[in-house]
Amino acid sequence: MTQPLPVVISCGEPAGIGPEVAARAWAALAGEVPLVWLGDPAHLPEGVAHQVITQPQEAAGLSPDVLPVIARDFGSPAVAGQPDPAHAAHVIDMIALGVSLVRDGAASALCTAPIHKKALKDGAGFAYPGHTEYLAALGSVDEVVMMLASEQLRVVPATIHIALDQVPLQLTPARLRRVIEITHAGLQTQFGIKAPRLAIAGLNPHAGEGGTMGKQEDAWIAPLVAEMISEGFELSGPLPADTMFHAAARSRYDAAIAMYHDQALIPIKTLDFDKGVNVTLGLPFIRTSPDHGTAFDIAGRGIANPASMIEALKMAQKMAGSA
Ligand SMILES: NC(=O)c1ccc[n+]([C@@H]2O[C@H](COP(=O)([O-])OP(=O)(O)OC[C@H]3O[C@@H](n4cnc5c(N)ncnc54)[C@H](O)[C@@H]3O)[C@@H](O)[C@H]2O)c1
Ligand SMILES: N[C@H](C(=O)O)[C@H](O)COP(=O)(O)O
């Protein structure tokens, strides 16, 4: 029987919890998801048995007791909680390497461990606010969607890593339409939902309350929703964002489209921080990630919970199987 292609994990910020959650997820999964870790093996927690390989396909021939690693010498050890500017370019390269391995057919999907965006900007001039935007550039696509998904909720922010005062400027009918289209297609092809139901949040308190607390809902969000319903999309909204995430409301949709980052991420990280998964939709390859960040406050102490990384790896494999 041919072995499934492995999922590749980019190391993320070595001073954060990325290497430890990757190693603990690999141990917990015990071969259920074939993996290859991309990074400096010196940054793995002490005692993690690993073997350096040069190509992902070599992983299939290894003992299940060793973590396969495609190694890069970052030049210095990782100090927990203190990102080294000299590591930044390597961290970025590991993401790019992961993408090329998937696009070349050597791996099935990319799972990214968390980066510290400011450390990458300061250390290597990283020009992107996050993986999502960098991966869009690597995939040569103009627009992608960041979805966070768990058993209880899927959410998509229509605008992503931008300051709050930029939201009304960058939230346009064209952007919201593309987000709805990409999310709808992603739920069909990557989550197996034939007729996705999407709930669209308003931007303002009480979804504008008839124009008394904001104009965007009446001016263009409601008309866009009506137009897309007439095209066959199953949409509801614009809904007041404060009341669309309780259990009964969540049962009425497959994904919620929020207007900005925190409107989407607060509910899911409150409900399911341990098991939330970040998925980028609209890329020409599969990418998942845990929902947490670098957690400098606990890095290196061996207490980071690998559950979100485990879910991200399982989801990557499942999506690759249905791709
Ligand atoms: N995919 C990514 O690359 C990604 C995702 C989110 C945040 N970040 C980045 O991470 C950095 C830190 O972000 P933050 O502080 O807002 O969020 P964070 O998720 O790193 O930490 C928030 C809190 O949750 C705790 N925590 C996080 N993950 C945990 C785990 N696995 N087990 C136990 N506790 C955990 C931390 O200790 C901290 O108290 C920022 O640079 C941010 O941009 C990156
Ligand atoms: N906004 C995401 C979150 O808080 O979970 C996070 O920063 C990750 O974004 P990228 O996957 O684009 O790095």
Automatic annotation (TrEMBL):
First-level EC class: oxidoreductase
Pathway it works in: Cofactor biosynthesis; pyridoxine 5'-phosphate biosynthesis; pyridoxine 5'-phosphate from D-erythrose 4-phosphate: step 4/5
Annotated keywords: Cobalt, Cytoplasm, Magnesium, Metal-binding, NAD, NADP, Oxidoreductase, Pyridoxine biosynthesis, Zinc
Record-level GO BP terms: pyridoxal phosphate biosynthetic process; pyridoxine biosynthetic process
Essential cofactor(s): Zn(2+); Mg(2+); Co(2+)
Positions contributing to a divalent metal cation binding: 161, 206, 261
Binding locations of substrate: 131-132, 269, 278, 287
Co-factor binding comment: Binds 1 divalent metal cation per subunit. Can use ions such as Zn(2+), Mg(2+) or Co(2+).
Pfam families reported in the protein's UniProt record: PdxA
Molecular-function annotations in GO: 4-hydroxythreonine-4-phosphate dehydrogenase activity; cobalt ion binding; magnesium ion binding; NAD binding; zinc ion binding
Catalytic activity: 4-(phosphooxy)-L-threonine + NAD(+) = 3-amino-2-oxopropyl phosphate + CO2 + NADH
Signal peptide per UniProt: none
GO cellular component: cytoplasm
Compartments, record wording: Cytoplasm
Gene3D superfamilies xrefs: Isopropylmalate Dehydrogenase
EC number: 1.1.1.262
Family: Belongs to the PdxA family.
UniProt function note: Catalyzes the NAD(P)-dependent oxidation of 4-(phosphooxy)-L-threonine (HTP) into 2-amino-3-oxo-4-(phosphooxy)butyric acid which spontaneously decarboxylates to form 3-amino-2-oxopropyl phosphate (AHAP).
Note: The active site is located at the dimer interface.
HAMAP family for this protein: PdxA (MF_00536)
Subunit architecture: Homodimer.
Name this polypeptide is given: 4-hydroxythreonine-4-phosphate dehydrogenase
Source organism of this protein record: Sulfitobacter noctilucicola
Organism placement in taxonomy: Bacteria, Pseudomonadati, Pseudomonadota, Alphaproteobacteria, Rhodobacterales
Name of the gene encoding the protein in the UniProt record: pdxA
